[in-house]
């Protein structure tokens, strides 16, 4: 008897725009190849190679042993919200930060989703400076709003100015998703630039969702400038997203948070009460320790110093060994964003370069296509110095092959 194959039922229009995260997928592919025994250097994913600081990890283990394994309070345990509020206050010269306005979530990814889902909807436009982290347009689509990519200025670390934003501003623009220090470029907005953008938002009655997950990984002095460093009125229509993943080497614990005006915090909490019932309980105990233990603070400073050394070495090698390759000078986060369309025969794409680099040289990077501009490639230097050295040697070889027209 002939077998009849049916086409799968179409899925809901909720997912009309969704595709899987490229950063997550490339990392998985690198792991798969490595498990097959291949010599792969993975500089794709933005994940610190350091262990979670010991006292935070122990606090998590002890929480499990003591039976802190039941449902958490939906908005987050008081210890964590207080510790994070105190920490954010200290970073901004002691300004008041109200723990009741913090909603703890499953990573800052969920905090971003909660904020966008609570604030935006059909017919709204949300401006996103481009290049942009892979999940921003997708999260805006999930909230049924329209992401509008605003190209950053090549002369200015690919950041956007108020002038750039004005070009895309109309009555439908309801939000701006800002990332500083920026993934994928490593650019950092100065406080006066943040203030100017805040003034633009106030003038046009636009919400700002400020993703400050990399705030501590800043190569200027202290933490990177934040909306918390501006007067209260700049927080009236701003949601600040923060978390433990990056600076605290706690990616797998999945703890993030959003700081929002009370009615928005309430709406996000209601939403989350139907999706996750709050973030993992023992992980919250671990994060509370991370945000309050001075020993952890020392670790954060050490890890940031290590990222800075790696950045310096990387930038020096690119300058000396690939003088024709343009890159954005990173001032924060742990990414080097470099341009490949001028390498070899004109018109090389990030995707082609990354395919060749992984296939022939065993180095995983992320093509700029994931960030809305495939003239570029992102390298994550949140990797050991040994891997970085080996990875850059191979990248230089790959540049040389394209330059020599061998590929
Ligand atoms: N924002 C940016 C800019 C990121 O690079 C990441 C990386 N994962 C996140 C948010 C989400 O981080 P997490 O969910 O681990 O807190
Ligand atoms: N944010 C990191 C990155 O850009 C982790 C992966 C992800 O969540 O996208 O690589």
Overview of the molecule:
- The structure is a single chain.
- The chain is α/β, with parallel strands linked by helices and 407 residues long.
- It folds into two domains: 146 residues, Aspartate Aminotransferase, domain 1, CATH 3.90.1150; 226 residues, Aspartate Aminotransferase, domain 2 (3-Layer(aba) Sandwich).
- Helix content is 41%, strand content 14%.
- A seven-stranded mixed beta sheet has the order 2-8-7-6-5-3-4, with helices on both faces. It has a three-stranded antiparallel beta sheet with strand order 9-12-11.
- The model has no long low-confidence stretch (mean pLDDT 96).
- The structure holds 4'-deoxy-4'-aminopyridoxal-5'-phosphate and glutamic acid.
- 4'-deoxy-4'-aminopyridoxal-5'-phosphate binds next to helix 4.
Structure summarized in a few sentences:
The chain is α/β, with parallel strands linked by helices. The chain has 12 helices and 12 strands.
Strand line-up of the largest beta sheet: 2-8-7-6-5-3-4
Number of strands: 12
Number of domains: 2
Number of helices: 12
Helix content: 40-55%
**Which regions have little confidence, pLDDT < 50, spanning 5+ residues?**
none
Rounded mean pLDDT is: 96
Q: In this structure, how is the largest beta sheet organized?
A: 7 strands, mixed
CATH architecture of the largest domain: 3-Layer(aba) Sandwich
Protein structure class: alpha/beta
- The first-to-last residue Cα distance is 50 Å
At the fourth CATH level, what is the homologous superfamily of the largest domain? Type I PLP-dependent aspartate aminotransferase-like (Major domain)
Cα Rg: 22 Å
Q: CATH topology of the largest domain, what is it called?
A: Aspartate Aminotransferase, domain 2
Strand residue content: 5-15%
Identify every distinct bound molecule in the structure, by name, code or SMILES: 4'-deoxy-4'-aminopyridoxal-5'-phosphate, glutamic acid
Order of helices and strands: HEHHEHEHEHEHEEEHHHEHEEEH
Give the overall silhouette: globular
Give the C-level CATH assignment of the largest domain: Alpha Beta
């Amino acid at each position: 008897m002939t077998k009849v194959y049916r086409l799968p039922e179409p899925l809901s229009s909720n997912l009309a725009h969704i595709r899987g995260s490229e950063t997550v997928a490339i990392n998985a592919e690198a792991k798969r190849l490595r498990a097959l025994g291949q010599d792969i250097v993975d500089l794709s994913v933005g994940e610190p190679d350091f262990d979670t600081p010991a006292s935070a990890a122990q606090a998590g283990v002890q929480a499990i042993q003591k039976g802190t394994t039941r449902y958490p309070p939906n908005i987050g345990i008081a210890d964590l919200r207080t510790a994070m509020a105190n920490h954010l206050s200290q970073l901004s010269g002691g300004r008041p930060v109200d723990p009741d306005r913090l909603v703890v979530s499953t990573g800052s990814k969920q905090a971003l989703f909660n904020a966008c889902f609570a604030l935006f909807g059909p017919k709204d436009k949300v401006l996103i400076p481009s290049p942009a982290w892979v999940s921003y347009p997708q999260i805006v689509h999930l909230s049924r709003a329209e992401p509008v990519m605003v190209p950053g200025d090549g002369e200015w670390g690919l950041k956007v100015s108020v002038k750039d934003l004005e070009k895309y501003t109309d009555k439908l623009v309801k939000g701006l998703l800002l990332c500083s220090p920026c993934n994928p470029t490593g650019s950092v907005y100065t406080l006066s630039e943040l203030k100017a953008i805040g003034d633009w938002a106030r003038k046009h009655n636009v919400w700002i969702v400020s993703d400050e997950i990399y705030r501590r990984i800043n190569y200027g002095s202290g933490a990177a400038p934040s909306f918390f460093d501006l007067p209260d009125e700049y927080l009236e229509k701003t949601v600040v997203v923060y978390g433990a993943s990056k600076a605290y080497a706690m990616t797998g614990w999945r703890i993030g948070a959003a700081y929002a005006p009370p009615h928005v915090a309430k709406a996000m909490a209601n939403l989350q009460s139907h999706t996750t019932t709050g973030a993992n309980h023992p992980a919250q105990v671990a994060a509370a320790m991370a945000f309050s233990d001075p020993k952890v603070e020392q670790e954060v400073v050490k890890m940031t110093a290590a990222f800075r050394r790696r950045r310096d070495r990387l930038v020096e090698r690119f300058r000396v060994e690939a003088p024709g390759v343009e890159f954005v000078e990173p001032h924060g986060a742990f990414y080097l964003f470099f341009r490949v369309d001028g390498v070899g025969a004109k018109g090389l794409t990030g995707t082609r370069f990354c395919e060749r680099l992984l296939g022939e040289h065993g180095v995983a990077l992320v093509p700029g296509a994931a960030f809305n501009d495939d003239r570029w490639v992102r390298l994550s230097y949140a990797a050991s110095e040994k891997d970085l050295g080996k990875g850059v040697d191979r990248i230089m070889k790959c540049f040389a092959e394209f330059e020599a027209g061998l590929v």
